[in-house]
Design goal:
Layout lengths: L5 E5 L7 H5 L4 E4 L4 H7 L7 E3 L8 H5 L3 H8 L4 E6 L8 H17 L3 E5 L4 H10 L5 E4 L5 H9 L3 E4 L1 H4 L12 E3 L20 H11 L3 H19 L7 H10 L5
Parallel strand pairs: 1-2, 2-3, 4-5, 5-6, 6-7, 7-8
Helix pairs in contact: 9-10, 10-11
The chain binds zinc ion.
Zinc ion binds next to loops.
C-alpha cells in the first residue's frame, strides 16, 4: 500500500476541527506566520499534521512580536520550523528581516528542524544567509532561483518543496530528484487546482514530477517519503514527530524500486 501524500507547506487555520484535518487523507506540514499562531497550533494534538513555528518574513507583526527565546521555547515542541526566510517584495525592511532570519538560523544551527524557507525575490540573499550560518534540514519552498543559485543550494545541502505553480515555472529541470518534496502552499501555490485545491492535495505535483522523470505516481510517492526520511535523518529531529509518521519514515528509508 502506498503511504499517504506529503504536503511540506500549507497554511491551515489552527482552529480547524481535528476530523477535517484527518479527512484530508495526507500528512500535512502546517506553516504558521507568527509566534502567536504557532503557540495556538502547538496546543493541538494531531497525528497527521505537523505544525510549524514560523515568522513570515513579509508579516510586519511577525517581526514586531519576534522574540528568540519564545521561538526557542516553541520550537522545542515541534520538529518543523516554518515559515521563515526573506521576502524581497515585502514592506518590512530587509535589515529587519535579516535580523529575525539570522536569529532563527542561529537557533536551528544548534537544534536542526525540518525548516521551510521563503525566498521570494530574495533567493541570492537567502543563500548568503545559509552560507554564513549553515543548517541541516533546510527546505527552500516555492524556490524560483536560477540554475547557478540552485546548484549553490544543492551544495549547501538544501531540499526543495515544489507546488503546482512552481512546477509550471520549470524548476523540475534544475532540482535533483533526491532533493525534491511536494507542497501545496495552500491557498497560494495551488490556485491552479481550482475546486480541488486543499491542503494535502499534491496529486498534480506528483504527476508533474512523474512526467518529468518518467516514473509512475506510486514510485514518486515512495521517493518523496524516502527524501523526507533522508532530511529527517540529517536534521535528527525524528523524535519530535508523531509516532505513525516516524514509523512510515522508517519504512520509507529504503525505497523498494
Ligand atoms: Zn507559506
Amino acid at each position: 500500500m502506498s503511504p499517504p501524500p506529503l504536503d511540506l507547506h500549507a497554511h491551515i487555520d489552527a482552529a480547524i476541527a481535528a476530523n477535517d484535518l484527518m479527512a484530508l487523507g495526507a500528512v500535512v506540514f502546517g506553516a504558521t506566520r507568527t509566534l502567536d499562531e504557532a503557540a495556538q497550533a502547538l496546543q493541538r494534538d494531531d497525528v497527521t499534521a505537523i505544525w510549524g513555528v514560523g515568522c513570515h518574513p513579509a508579516e510586519v507583526r511577525a517581526h514586531r512580536d519576534f522574540d528568540p527565546r519564545r521561538f526557542a521555547a516553541l520550537a522545542a515542541e515541534s520538529p518543523f520550523a516554518s515559515e521563515i526566510g526573506l521576502d524581497g517584495a515585502a514592506k518590512v525592511p530587509i535589515e529587519t528581516q535579516r535580523e529575525t532570519f539570522e536569529a532563527i538560523l542561529n537557533f536551528l544551527a544548534e537544534k536542526p528542524r525540518i525548516t521551510s524557507i521563503h525566498s521570494y525575490r530574495a533567493t541570492a540573499e537567502v543563500l548568503n544567509c545559509l552560507e554564513a550560518q549553515p543548517i541541516r534540514g533546510a527546505i527552500l519552498h516555492w524556490w524560483l532561483g536560477d540554475a547557478e543559485q540552485t546548484t549553490r543550494a544543492v551544495e549547501l545541502g538544501c531540499w526543495f518543496s515544489v507546488n503546482a505553480s512552481s512546477v509550471r515555472r520549470g524548476v523540475l529541470k534544475l532540482i535533483p530528484l533526491d532533493r525534491l518534496l511536494p507542497e501545496t502552499d495552500h491557498p497560494f501555490g495551488d490556485r491552479s487546482n481550482g475546486k480541488s485545491a486543499r491542503p494535502g492535495n499534491v496529486a498534480s505535483v506528483e504527476r508533474s514530477i512523474g512526467a518529468h522523470h518518467n516514473l509512475d505516481s506510486a514510485v514518486v510517492r515512495n521517493l518523496m517519503w524516502s527524501n523526507l526520511a533522508d532530511l529527517v535523518g540529517a536534521a535528527r529531529c525524528a523524535s519530535l514527530l508523531p509516532r505513525p509518521i516516524r514509523l512510515q519514515l522508517m519504512a520509507s528509508s529504503h525505497p523498494a524500486f
